[in-house]
Amino acid sequence: MAGQTGSSTPGDPPGPRPYSVPEARLAREIFGPLGGIVEIGAVRATGTWALPDVSVGDFLTRRQNEVDRLLNGIRTVCGFSDAAMAINDDLGWLSDYEVAAPFLLLWSGGVEGVPERREELEEPATVRRMCHMGADLQLTHFLQALISGALTAGTEAQQGAEEVAEILGIAVDLADGTGRNTPTSVFRTWRVAFLPGILRPDSSAPERGRAGFRAYARALEELLDHHSVSRASANRETAVRSGKFCREATT
């Protein structure tokens, strides 16, 4: 259930440890941020930012197909065993529980600060800020952990980049769905937040690990840039058709 300790605790960042990380630890580093992503998505889905209106269980029921696709993708790209996947159930984040403001504070890295009165954390404007920051932070940590898991499993970029991009897209939709966060924005944040520490000359990451992260960065950039261009072209075409329809309707 929510409240476990260790790397599953809200806000704990996964570290760059490819090829030598125990499977159980990798699973916790992935499923921890995923719990924050789902919780934040459930809060956002209320439309009110009021915590009494939040039902994680109802949110999961409505989005079950997406959650199943995401979990299956994680199993595939990270090569997780049944025991590793069961850690997700053990942590309890993907279940029905009461969302408390301190959880959101932790998911968002404590940026909001601890007020004198807990009630101040529950104000809708504060909840909204924590959810925005939490989505930015946990999606970035999720991507780092996912790539680490893929590399540890031996899933190199040429085999795994498309799957990672698809999983990231589902996670973004769960956390946000409004366009504020996109797979491209999460990727760019990950690239500046994690890659320099992994690739710098004095990094403790093994050379094979550095090469793996660099390959994923290049492959994901190409995939996501292509997706962004395709989406922009589709939007322009829709706008042109809409404008043509409006002109014809007025003639």
What would you say this structure looks like, in words?
With 251 residues, the protein is mostly helical. Helices cover 67% and strands 0% of the residues. It has one domain. The protein contains ten helices and no strands. Mean pLDDT is 88; it is low at 1-9 and 11-18.
Please state roughly what percent of the residues sit in beta strands, choosing from under 5%, 5-15%, 15-25%, 25-35%, 35-45% or over 45%. under 5%
**Structural classification:** mainly alpha
Rg estimate, integer Å? 19 Å
The average pLDDT score comes to 88
Number of strands: 0
Helix content: 55-70%
Major β-sheet, in short?
A: none
Note the total helix count.
10
Number of domains: 1
Write the H/E string, N to C.
HHHHHHHHHH
Give the termini distance in whole angstroms: 63 Å
pLDDT below 50 for ≥5 consecutive residues: which ranges? 1-9, 11-18
Report the principal-axis shape: globular
